[in-house]
Amino acid sequence: MAAPKSPPPNARNDHAGNDKNPRPAPGSAAAANAGADATSSTIRAPAAVPPPASAIHDAHGHAIPLVRKAPTISASSNASTPTTTMPPPLPSQTLTAYGPDPPAPRIEDSLRLEELDKNLFRCHPEHLWLPVGSRGVFGGQIIGLALVAATHTVPRAFSVHSLHSYFLLGGDNTKPILFHVTPMRDARSFMTRQVTANQDGKPIFVMLCSFMRGEDRALVHQYEMPTPFVDPEALPTREQVFTGWLDRVPAKYHDGIHKRLAEPIPVDMRFVAPTRPTDYTFPKRKDPRALVWMKSKTKLPADQALHNCVAAYCSDHHLVWTTLYPHAVTGWTNPKLNMIMSLDHSIWFHADFRADDWLLYEMESPRASGNRGLALGRLWAKDGTLVMSCAQEGLIRATFAPDKPLSVPPLEGVDDRGVAVLNAPPTDSPLDEINRNTRKLPPTYVAVPQGMVKGLQEMEKRKGVATEGVPKATKL
């Protein structure tokens, strides 16, 4: 039989109302092909007609337009070898503000999956992103892809309300990743799915996510959005920030900046506080808090399930880095950061939102210990609605070179536990004004690593370096 023609970009392979049996979306190639099979096994499926915007979903199913059927292998009449029919790429939907040259990366491509079998999906390596300096595929992309796979297996009446995940191994961006969905529970109000991402026969990621049928709101409360409001359109883009650095830093740093500018990041991110080159080369201790405006660089369909997956992708950006702020540690400092990676990630979805409209990501870190840092995040819509909350623990390892000077002076007022209160000096950053007008963060206590204390004492003995204010080597 001839290969079925590809579905239109917005055609959906939705599910039937009994929550278990899949059904092709009306107007899709799969539906047309099914009708052809009913009459004759030799009739070629007619070309699919894209449904109108109002018909993207059918009345019962729940799937998002990021999952395509696996390519069909068919015998070609004009060739001796089988041919493969691949779905065409979606048309570009670049916002005009970014211009057509070059087009903005589309987050839809980063979250695209191929359906191989029931509850089995594949992401091709050309869609995987390895950040500069990273040991594996971007964790937010793995989370988003896993949520896409899970969402494709539940009815439309159910929406994700929480997910909890663990990163087991770094993903290889040169090989496909398989996502296997296991239905754990199908009940009247809740459905639970487990998603395991596998590569080379090994699990690299596991996630449990829960979907809930919509209910009327009875009890509602939330925090207030950080104030005063800072207009994201008045802030520089990530690309503008890095481009501006090229005129302010030595030429030896230009290659690294160009590599970051070339990264295909499909998210527009704008820090409320100014970002300077010295934040990396000569950082100062500061409170573990950050505010970043985020949104997709491309317009997205009006599908809340898709927006949830996009926000899950975005939620891994910058979150774990807030755990380093009180320590002023980077790859150029002493102590030197030599590892930072996500260990786990949890998300709670509170309200509907659009991921192609500005969302304020508020991040803070209440604790770091044992080479692990805990970071909490809250995602706010522009109208002040708290739409999503996150929690993440990351592995943060730094090494101290006793034969080199410290990048920042030792903290004063260290007690007998090796702990001091961080009193970050006020600046003209908008973040300081927001901190004064919003919930007050408790004092940040910084533990002085005992290895650093020992190294400083050795420096004093060998070079006569004063270590006034450095605590004795006590065990925390």
From TrEMBL:
InterPro entries: Acyl-CoA_hotdog, Acyl_CoA_thio, HotDog_dom_sf, TesB_ACOT8-like_N, TesB_C. This is Acyl-CoA thioesterase II. Keywords: Hydrolase, Lipid metabolism. Residues 1-57, 74-107 are annotated as: Disordered. Homotetramer. One of its GO terms (biological process) is acyl-CoA metabolic process. CDD domains: Thioesterase_II_repeat1 (cd03444), Thioesterase_II_repeat2 (cd03445). GO terms for cellular component: peroxisomal matrix. Residues 1-10 have a biased composition (Pro residues). The keyword Lipid metabolism applies. It holds the Pfam family Acyl_CoA_thio. One of its GO terms (molecular function) is fatty acyl-CoA hydrolase activity. Belongs to the C/M/P thioester hydrolase family. Residues 12-22 have a biased composition (Basic and acidic residues). Residues 26-47, 74-84 have a biased composition (Low complexity). Residues 289-395 form the Acyl-CoA thioesterase 2 C-terminal domain. Gene3D superfamilies: Acyl-CoA thioesterase, double hotdog domain. Residues 130-212 form the Acyl-CoA thioesterase-like N-terminal HotDog domain.
